[in-house]
TrEMBL record:
Basic and acidic residues composition bias: residue spans: 353-365
Segment forming the signal sequence: none
Keyword Lyase in annotation: yes
One Pfam family from the record: OCD_Mu_crystall
GO molecular function: ornithine cyclodeaminase activity
Record protein name field: Ornithine cyclodeaminase
EC number in record: 4.3.1.12
PANTHER family the record matches: KETIMINE REDUCTASE MU-CRYSTALLIN (PTHR13812:SF19)
Gene3D superfamilies: NAD(P)-binding Rossmann-like Domain, ornithine cyclodeaminase, domain 1
Positions of region (Disordered): 352-373
Keyword annotations: Lyase
Amino acid sequence: MHAPAPVLPRTLFLDTHDVARLIGVLGLPACLRGLAGTLRADYLRWPEFDKEARIAAYSEQGTIELMPITDGTHYSFKCVNGHPGNGRHGLPTVMAMGALLDCDTGMIRLLSELTLTTALRTAAMSALAAQVLARRDSHSMALIGNGAQSDFQALAFATLLGVRELRLHDLDRRASERLARNLAAAELPGRPLSVRLCDSVAEAVRGADIVTTVTAFQGRAQVLDDALIEPGMHLNAVGGDCPGKTELDPAILRRAEVFVEFPPQTRKEGEIQQMPADFPVTELWRVLAGDAPGRTRADQVTLFDSVGFALEDYSALRFLQAQAEAHQVGTWVEVTPGQADPRDLYGWLQGELRGEQRGEQRGEPQSRPALVS
Ligand code: NAD
């Protein structure tokens, strides 16, 4: 009997430049469509996943969260922060990284940036929810909060729902101007986007088919008042995503039909943290699977109380892995040592210290075998 040939435990590493390159290769609309398709396929497998609410460390400045999930074949996690005051340090509010592992062996298959990817997957998820919850004739959206996530939200709704009219509002006018400039330069198939900057939330929301709130404030904000909500609107509330951090007037929750990702997490972190523990909600996967109704009337107010769930990062990591391998993007790295005798870790270290292994060149980027140069 031969011993099995040693498997070199190589890990595919994707940094932000790699993910940007992938988006360049695929095109952003195709990327959003591909991600939404992967999200949908994985949400339809909901019962197969071992799910838990994310594990969070809260401080006065923000949150650091660990988001694990597995379907028994792959295990993934994301580590992400939310620090609304980070602009003071020249840092983004949200930054993330994550990994995908094989359940059979525990091998780390993929290590990836997830900051850019979080913006993409959140936007694709918002649009996927709106596809089953918003009125079919929706063509206009108010976008409140015009920071890092907002461009992706706008482009996902334009790509996946055909939204063509955007009304932008932010407390900081320069944020809306930045977003408007980026949207004017964005290449989208079909009719061009019409973009209007609004001085108030009320001006942006009046007559809109969809309202997306994606603001960052470490506290109970009331970005949307109940008086502004019109029959038939779909609300996509993205910014309230941890305990004590909300965006909506609770009166809106009482009259809207509320859809959530994973109730145990959303009850702690979402808009519905403002409501009693038995507040009725519908799990979005049931709507996608045809097990529960989404919108039932044209005049109904629907709300996707988005907080971001680990399944979405699992989908994003699987999507990235498939695309990176198909398009030869990324770098192979040795996150774990590849010793010939798996039990001789010490021997591997000695060889490494004697410079006998490739690791002697570590630190020189070109020493890593790139999938593409
Ligand atoms: P960002 O800091 O880049 O932008 C936030 C913007 O909101 C800023 O331009 C700020 O001026 C504006 N703002 C704050 N309060 C406002 C108010 N009351 N009215 C209008 N504008 C206001 O942050 P970002 O990366 O775009 O993230 C936005 C929010 O989305 C954060 O709270 C983040 O935690 C959340 N988020 C949620 C998910 C999810 O899956 N649900 C995923 C990613 C980020």
